Amino acid sequence: MFTTSDLKNESSPIKIPKVVEDEKDFMTKVKEGIVSYVNTKLNGFSNPVLFATSILSCVLLAFILLLVLSLVNCPITSNMSEKITYNTGDATMQKDFLDAILSPPDAQELKDAGITRTASVCILEASNLRPDGSTVGYKNCLIAENQDLKMMGWQTGWCKGAREKAQLTWDGDTLACDDKPGMVFTTKVVETVKTEQTVCPTFGAALGSSLAYISYLELLFTAIVGFAYIHLGIVKPNNSDASLMMLLKSASSTKIEAEVESLRKDVDDIMGTSASIDVRTVDITVSSEVDSQ
Question: For residues 64 and 207, is the Cβ–Cβ distance under 8 A?
Fold first, then answer.
């Protein structure tokens, strides 16, 4: 049999567990936080969470794409130098000097550093110190032609047309520069060195440069998403102040607006009312009642 107390128990309201209420409060705070982070003016439209999530998703995707492009964008820096050098020594020393220009000792270190080096060197003139009648001075001496130098293991030779030009100044007693073992002579060479290096930015540098465009991305996608959603009817203005232009104006000052909105809510809680506060006008009315005797 049912008693009166049983009927009372059946008709009593069902209590919602506190955990469920806390979860709902948490989700509400998360949604409000997303809207406040993107743009507090989105609260002036229907579906502000969908509006804010769409803008934020577009900004994040564009930011990730921009970050990847920054990481893979590795510009090539190049440098070219050309100079004329004089070197004195015997034939072996001259050959080693020219080989060092073409294949420097630090070639592997340059390669490990990502530097590509190309060099070319050729001989403009050659001369040696030898008696000239009653005096001693420098006179042009003879170096083998390029094909002969190559056969002797030289990696380079005369510059184009240089041997023919120098030959015009040779006299009848022109001797070979190395006609005697260990004979010392001087060469005038022109060397051209070109270096190229691929410079890729570090993750920190790429991240910093990408973050600099966040404000522009937010403004861009606020305009695109806002125009599409408003004209498709996905979101609708809740009041006359809500407009796309208003969103664009406030897109660059989201953090300030979030602080103002937070302040409004705090004041509402203190005053015990949900009415919005107009910070521009404050009316104070003082009334007094005097009892006449």
Answer: no
Tell me the C-alpha distance between 266 and 260, whole Å.
10
> DSSP label at 123?
E
Helices 203-211 and 48-72, axial angle in degrees (round to 10): 140
Exposure string for 219-243, b = 16+ CB within 10 A, e = fewer? bbbbbebbeebbeeeebeeeeeebb
Residue 277: the pLDDT is: 43
Radius of gyration (C-alpha) of the chain in whole angstroms:
43
Q: What 3-state DSSP class applies to 218?
A: helix
- The ranges of the chain with pLDDT < 70 are 1-24, 130-138, 169-175, 179, 251-293
3 state SS of 160: coil
Torsion of CA 97, 101, 103, 106, to 10 degrees: 100
